Amino acid sequence: MDFPGFSQSPIETAGTTIDNLTITQGTLNVNITCTPAVNIKGNISVASGQTLTFSPASASTLTFSGTTPQTISNSGTLTFAANEAVVIANTASPTPSVTFNQSQTISGSTTINASSRLATSGTLTLSGTKTFNGAFQLNQGGSLVGVPTYGSSSTLIYAGTSAQIPTATEWPAASGPANLISANTVGVNVPASFDRTLTGNLTLTSGTLNDGSSLLTVNGSVLGTGTHSSTGVGRIFLNGNTPGISGATLGNIRINNPTTLTFTGSPTVNGTFDQAGFN
């Protein structure tokens, strides 16, 4: 929309599908009240001094359903009000993604579908119910306000370009992510006394995951060719029955009496490799 001084508030009860939604000049209030109300298949962009608001009078749903990666860029005012549930359902391949390029607040519920990924490069404040069944990614400058509940196939990804320190907000001790991907080229520095359990896999893609003397229990496998380093009693504890270890560089690692241990690469262990034994 490029209409200086223009303000429009369409109110509908039927859904609509939008490709790219760009507010160059003016104000647009989208007040559609049905489910699904609005399907966004492209990008959202709000220019400086301009306004885009999703504020239905009753419960409604906004779905990001593109088949290519989508971005939300906001230099003006972008509002997702409390009655607007936001669903991340992007199916782009190979990495489905919706990325907030700036800080943003979503006042209603937020759901990431199992095959989708939500990324943020700013502070993402989620005030409603937060259900992460897919992947959540923290880019450089990204942070989360509001503790989510992760599903059984969920993944947390650290993908900054300067060192990132995990917090209990995006990585809670209870109902945390099933899988973790460390993809920060500089490193991810786990705090002390930050013991966590992954019911799935730990993937070391790039940089170094420093365990900070914390215990990282992995019920699946260690994947990737990145690096893990240990401080003090910190270690990776492989607790599954049939774990695999890739060609990563590892610090301290302990195996909990698996039936089968598979080496999918040629790992380097710079710390202590404890083996409790085999059945």
List keywords for this structure.
279 residues; elongated; seven-stranded parallel beta sheet; mainly beta; ten-stranded parallel beta sheet; single chain
Describe it:
With 279 residues, the protein is mainly beta. It is 0% helix and 45% strand. The protein is built from no helices and 36 strands. It is elongated. The N and C termini lie far apart (66 Å). The model has no long low-confidence stretch (mean pLDDT 93).
What is the residue-mean pLDDT, rounded to a whole number? 93
Low-confidence stretches: none
Percentage of residues in strands: over 45%
Task: Tally the helices.
Answer: 0
The neighbouring-strand order within the major sheet is: 3-6-9-12-15-18-21-22-25-28
Q: Biggest β-sheet: count, sense, barrel? A: 10 strands, parallel
Task: Provide a quick synopsis of the model.
Helices cover 0% and strands 45% of the residues. It is mostly beta strands and 279 residues long.
What's the arrangement of secondary structure elements?
Blueprint: E1 2-8, E2 16-18, E3 21-23, E4 25-30, E5 38-40, E6 44-46, E7 51-54, E8 60-64, E9 70-74, E10 77-80, E11 84-88, E12 98-100, E13 104-106, E14 110-112, E15 117-120, E16 123-126, E17 130-132, E18 135-139, E19 143-145, E20 149-150, E21 155-159, E22 179-182, E23 188-189, E24 196-198, E25 202-204, E26 208-210, E27 215-218, E28 222-224, E29 227-229, E30 235-238, E31 244-245, E32 249-250, E33 253-255, E34 262-263, E35 268-269, E36 273-275
Parallel strand pairs: 1-4, 2-5, 3-6, 4-7, 5-8, 6-9, 7-10, 8-11, 9-12, 11-14, 12-15, 13-16, 14-17, 15-18, 16-19, 17-20, 18-21, 21-22, 22-25, 23-26, 24-27, 25-28, 26-29, 27-30, 30-33, 31-34, 32-35, 33-36
